[in-house]
């Protein structure tokens, strides 16, 4: 019997009963071909490779992560909940040392789901990785977590949720937002006033290849992780950087993904996008599985793989070198930048956001207000308008000082229906969630 070096847990959840439309690229075949390929390779028979069924999680972890409008069950299906649960099941087994690594091969994906969520955005409704983070903090008292998003699209939802949270380092590599959905993820997006430098974005040129990705990893991401020292590393493992992906323009290969996984060495990888259903996903998924399991993956190659054709231009290599230098400067100077931002805004940091729900065709308007507090990361209030809803979302952060904590509860109890349809409080300090609903 062949044996994996690392004990690896897999959850394979193709979500047969959920799709946007039958021909939509985000459909169950995304995983069915991979499952066939895993079977063909005999991976299910390897010693140290375990396949689990997900448990269904309690909605409380969703409500600690998101403000679901009008409520969880109106926007998230059982498939969404199982996808999120899969991550929790795996990470639980990692923490109990039953396995060393986990790979959640699940759908629907999650990284475009923001803190406030009204439904489907970029094929995402709830954020699988973010829900896992809240679970880890509540149930396992894990403090420092890193999420490295290697999906081809900017992980704008994950960025939004941990924007002002220093305990979660979020780094996203993606095709430049000027050329791809969702159009964000530029180097100047570096986190809120209490967490500047803990959100880092690497917008990459179209046609970047394995070489460019691995350069970013070795020269920027690994040194930063070394300094940050996370207790858990999560990889949002989107596979749409693949050269055959129909939605994107990158030149990444299965070998590239395998090497990336080997070097990043995450505790858990979570499938995000990847729409080259037959030509890429089975190979890339296999590459990631082998790398996580510590099995030699040098033989995994797409039938049409030709590294010559995928070679990136010198212009791209030079751009990436400069990009990594610039982002490292942000990381190195984060304390000074934070100091300057706080000095500039003094009491409150506000930002207006328009969030487009591409799948559903509606627009949300947000006004976010982050209190600048010298004792904690500061109370957050968000006014959000979308469809017929008008929401006041209040977030008491994990590290809330008593003043911000009390202020959050005061705002919650003193805001009556007025113009709001929903007034919701997330108390992350005590892991509580309260909601007042008014008829529209
Ligand atoms: Zn990304
Ligand atoms: Zn993607
Ligand atoms: Zn405070």
TrEMBL record:
Protein name: Histone deacetylase
Pfam families: Hist_deacetyl (PF00850)
Family listed: Belongs to the histone deacetylase family.
Family annotation (InterPro entries): HDACs, His_deacetylse_dom, His_deacetylse_dom_sf, Ureohydrolase_dom_sf
Ranges for domain Histone deacetylase: 81-278
Domain of life: Bacteria
Source organism: Caldicellulosiruptor morganii
